[in-house]
């Protein structure tokens, strides 16, 4: 998703507004930084939670997987956002040394919402199609 940049000679601003450019109410915001380039993160899916990831500085590679299609993309721009719906496996790799990955979430932290095993994720995706 492209985020609208408002700017002039003084610099740039991007507004994040639920209902306008964020497709859910925000209940949690966090950011990932200081991750070494050879370290992967994520490796999970959420049953209900939705997220929006924005690389506000630096870059990282995102892998998203809906149980059928696995896609890779590079997040490297503060005006690009990746919306990650529920029941999507996500992995993050190749963090640049200056990477700051901002994540907006549709709900509070709830460990029971996580699927941390890929085989279990695939089983739940397939069970949901019945």
TrEMBL record:
Gene3D superfamilies: Jelly Rolls (2.60.120.10). InterPro entries: QdtA_cupin_dom, RmlC-like_jellyroll, RmlC_Cupin_sf. This is FdtA/QdtA family cupin domain-containing protein. It comes from Pseudomonas mercuritolerans. Residues 2-125 form the Sugar 3,4-ketoisomerase QdtA cupin domain. The lineage of its organism: Bacteria, Pseudomonadati, Pseudomonadota, Gammaproteobacteria, Pseudomonadales.
């Amino acid at each position: 998703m492209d985020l609208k940049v408002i700017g002039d000679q003084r610099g740039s601003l991007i507004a994040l507004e639920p209902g306008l450019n964020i497709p859910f109410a925000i209940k949690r915001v966090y950011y990932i930084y200081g991750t070494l380039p050879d370290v992967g993160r994520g490796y999970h899916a959420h049953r209900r939670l939705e997220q929006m990831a924005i690389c506000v500085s630096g870059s990282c590679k995102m892998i998203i997987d809906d149980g059928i299609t696995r896609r890779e993309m590079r997040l490297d721009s503060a005006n690009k956002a990746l919306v990650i719906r529920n029941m999507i496996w996500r992995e993050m790799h190749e963090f640049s040394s200056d990477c700051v990955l901002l994540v907006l979430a549709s709900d509070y932290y709830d460990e029971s919402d996580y699927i941390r095993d890929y085989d279990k994720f695939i089983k739940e995706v397939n069970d949901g199609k019945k």
